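Tokens as discussed.
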């Protein structure tokens, strides 16, 4: 559910630079993979003051990609951003198609080829019996760039390119982490800066609220419309996400005072429910509170979701200790754990939570062998009448090769730590 506090897509009515996005990939077109790039790039463009005209999705076919490029050019956009199709395989054809669209030949960039070779050597170092020259030959395609284009250094193995013209075309990789990491360099390109030179500069602020229905926020915004001077110059979008109300406000610099007054009213009406005024998520705030600590997670039936939420967002590092089990019995689901650090427990000085208090419980879990079954080394572990859990050996072998250890006495299951 989403709504706007005012009509219109343009702040002040004069966003003069327009852009379009072409998301490529048959897997995205057919819905097998969700499009994470289109919305993310759209938000970045809006923050820059660039009006988004269209987002299109097409499969890995040169004719379809070219059709999207021509459509957006006919719409008069100043910048086209493409995502995906930069790999070494036959169906990765975005760069070639963009070069044809721009009337430019593809040329081998030898400096880029050397960078890709260095990346591949690092990746291949962990494997034996790999023909590096064969791998490099397959990836040489990624060093072919349109003549005269700016090259963006690869984050993975795929570089990005900026092709000058009317419109300018910015070609970015498909994996979201690579695309997002490459974005600052793309925006710093002189060619991109020239393409978006006429944009409107404005601010974007995100407020997150928990416990307030969206209708309650709408009522406050209606009140603000009558008491906040300059409210009409604020573009406000509200959205309900997993029980949280998100309020995004975009405004030009001269409307900063109107936003300040709006937030004063928001704090007065809903201060106890506002948990973020800088756009940070609960995950970000918890991670900040835990910075400098050594964290262990104990998760059952979550597939590691807690640890992932603590560490997955960009630019976040944490000293995280986590075990992982292979199996499916109640003992494993109930006893997946990591021992705490004695010094941490003693430092808390909480009654009943000292190391001597908890040690017997850790030992009880470690020696929970009350379930019947064959030895853990067996291919199938019996855990209950009529239930058989197959132990998948390939991930175990990979873990062992990586230096992890297998514990054979964890409730008749295998524990990789």
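Sequence:
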């Amino acid at each position: 559910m989403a709504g706007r506090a005012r009509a219109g897509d343009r702040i002040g009515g004069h966003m003069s630079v327009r852009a379009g996005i072409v998301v490529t990939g048959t897997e995205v077109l057919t819905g097998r993979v969700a499009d994470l790039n289109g919305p993310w790039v759209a938000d970045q463009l809006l923050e820059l003051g660039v009006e988004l005209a269209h987002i299109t999705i097409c499969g890995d076919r040169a004719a379809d990609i070219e059709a999207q490029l021509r459509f957006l050019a006919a719409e008069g956009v100043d910048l086209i951003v493409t995502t995906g199709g930069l790999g070494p395989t036959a169906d990765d054809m975005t760069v070639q198609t963009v070069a044809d669209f721009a009337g430019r030949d593809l040329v081998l960039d030898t400096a880029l080829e050397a960078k890709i070779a260095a990346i591949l050597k690092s990746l291949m170092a962990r494997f034996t019996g790999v023909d590096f020259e064969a791998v490099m030959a397959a990836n040489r395609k990624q060093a072919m760039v349109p003549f005269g284009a700016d090259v963006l250094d690869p984050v993975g193995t795929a570089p990005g390119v900026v092709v000058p013209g009317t419109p300018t075309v910015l070609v970015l990789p498909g994996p979201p982490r690579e695309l997002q990491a490459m974005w600052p360099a793309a925006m710093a390109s002189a060619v991109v800066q020239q393409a978006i030179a006429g944009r409107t500069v404005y601010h974007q602020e995100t407020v997150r609220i928990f416990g307030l229905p969206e209708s309650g926020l709408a009522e406050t915004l209606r009140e603000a419309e009558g008491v906040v001077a300059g409210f009409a110059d604020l573009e406000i979008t509200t959205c309900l996400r997993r029980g949280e109300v998100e309020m995004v406000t975009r405004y030009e610099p001269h409307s900063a005072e109107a936003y300040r007054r709006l937030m004063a009213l928001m704090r007065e009406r809903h201060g106890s429910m506002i948990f973020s005024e800088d756009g940070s998520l609960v995950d970000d705030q918890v991670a900040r509170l835990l910075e400098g600590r050594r964290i262990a997670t104990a998760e059952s039936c979550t597939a590691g979701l807690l640890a992932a939420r603590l560490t997955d967002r960009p630019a976040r590092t944490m000293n995280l200790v986590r075990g992982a089990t292979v199996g499916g019995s109640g003992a494993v689901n109930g006893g997946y754990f990591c021992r705490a650090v004695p010094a941490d427990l003693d430092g808390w000085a909480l009654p009943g939570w000292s190391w001597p208090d908890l040690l017997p419980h850790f030992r009880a879990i470690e020696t929970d062998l009350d379930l019947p079954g064959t030895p853990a080394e067996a291919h199938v572990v019996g855990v209950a009448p009529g239930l058989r859990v197959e132990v998948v050996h390939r991930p175990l072998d990979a873990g062992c090769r990586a230096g992890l250890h297998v514990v054979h006495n964890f409730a008749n299951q295998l524990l990789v730590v």
